[in-house]
Amino acid sequence: MLAVILPALAGAQANNAASHLLTTWMGMLPIIIAASHGGRQKIPGVPVRSGTGVSQFITERDSNTAELAETLASKVGDRLGARPFLVLAHFERKYVDANRPAAAAYDSAAAKPYYDAYHRALAEASERIRLQWGSGLLLDIHGQGAVADTIFRGTNNGKSVAALRQRFALKPSADLKVSWRRCR
Ligand SMILES: [Zn+2]
After folding, report:
1. Which pTM does this prediction carry?
2. Residue 62 Cα, ligand 1 centroid: separation in angstroms?
3. Are 89 and 118 in contact (CB under 8 A)?
4. From ligand 1's centre to the CA of 90, what distance in Å?
5. CATH architecture of 18-41+57-143
6. Rounded to whole angstroms, how far apart are CA atoms 164 and 159?
7. 101: CA distance to ligand 1 center in Å?
C-alpha cells in the first residue's frame, strides 16, 4: 500500500514545486499573455541542459520579458477593465526551454513537471477561452537582439499569425518597424 502512495505523493510534491515557478492569472478576457524565456530562477535538482542532439539550442534568457509580459497584462487589464490570462515561467531557460517540443526542452526527468506545468497552464487558459468565447488571442512574448528598436510580430516567418493576418488583412510594414521573423 505504501509503495502505491509514495509515488503519488512524490508526484504531487513535484507538481506543487513546479507551480511555484510560474505566475498564472485567471483571465476575464479572451487574451492570454505568456512568456517562457524570461525566467531567472534555478530549478533545484535539475541539471543545466547540455543540448546534445538538439537543433536551435539556446540557453540565453530573453531579458526582461517576464517583467514586460506582467506589465503588459496589468495595462491591458486597466485599459479594458478586465484581466487577461497570464502565464509566466520563472525558471531559467538553461534548465527548461518551455518553447520547444518536450524532447528538446530538458535533459532530466526531474525537469518534466516544470515543463508540463507551464504547458498545462497554457492549455487550461486556452480551453477556458474556447469554452467561453470560442476563440482568442495569444501574445507569446519573446526577445530578439537581431535588429534594434524593432518589434517582430509573429514567428516562423508569419506562420504563427496567419489567421490574424488573414482576418485583418495585415501586411509586414517597414513604417511601423514591425516584421515577420523566425523566433529563435
Ligand atoms: Zn524566446
Report:
1. 0.86
2. 6
3. yes
4. 13
5. 3-Layer(aba) Sandwich (3.40)
6. 10
7. 14
